[in-house]
Amino acid sequence: MSTPIPAHHPISSITEDDLRNFAALVPPSGTEILRLLGVKAGLTLLNGLAGVRVVVPKGPCNNAGGKRVWNYLAAVIGVDAMNVLAKEMGGECLKVPTLYSLRSERRNHAIRMQFDRLTAPAPAGEGLSKFRAMQELVLLHAPITCRHLETVLDRPSPEPACQTTLF
Q1: Model pTM?
Q2: Using CA of residue 46, residue 52, residue 53, residue 59, what is the dihedral sign?
Q3: Residue 78 — left, alpha, or beta (φ > 0 → left; ψ -120 to 50 → alpha)?
C-alpha cells in the first residue's frame, strides 16, 4: 500500500495557490510558459515535464522526430496549447524549469507552520516539546535530516517585497 504524496512535498504538483503565494520564486522561463499557455496548460507542462529540454516542433507532421515530440507534448498539454506553443516557439529549444526554489520554499513554509502548531500550547496547538515536534516533522517530511530541519526552522519565511501577479 503506497502513501499519497503530501501537498507540501517537493515532488508534488505546483498549484495555482502556490503560484500566487510564491510568485517571486517563479523564474522568467516559467512565467513565459504560463503567459503563453495559460495557467491550466502551463501548470500541466511545469508539473509534468519539469527539467526537460526539447526542441518545439513547428508542426505536427514536419518529420518523424518532430511528429513524436508533437504527439507527446500534445498529449501532455492538449492540442490547442500545443498549437500556441508551436506558433510562438516552433524550432526553438523549450527549457521547462523545475521550480526547485518554489517547491523548497513551499515545503519550508509548511514545516514552519506545522512546527508552530505542534509546539503551541493546547488548545491552539499540541503543546509538544521542540524535540518531539522535530521527531514528528522529520518523519513526515522524510527524506530530510534533523540538521536540515533545524536550518529550516531557524530561518524565517521570506516576506515578499511586493505582490507579484503571474495571472
Answers
A1: 0.80
A2: negative
A3: left
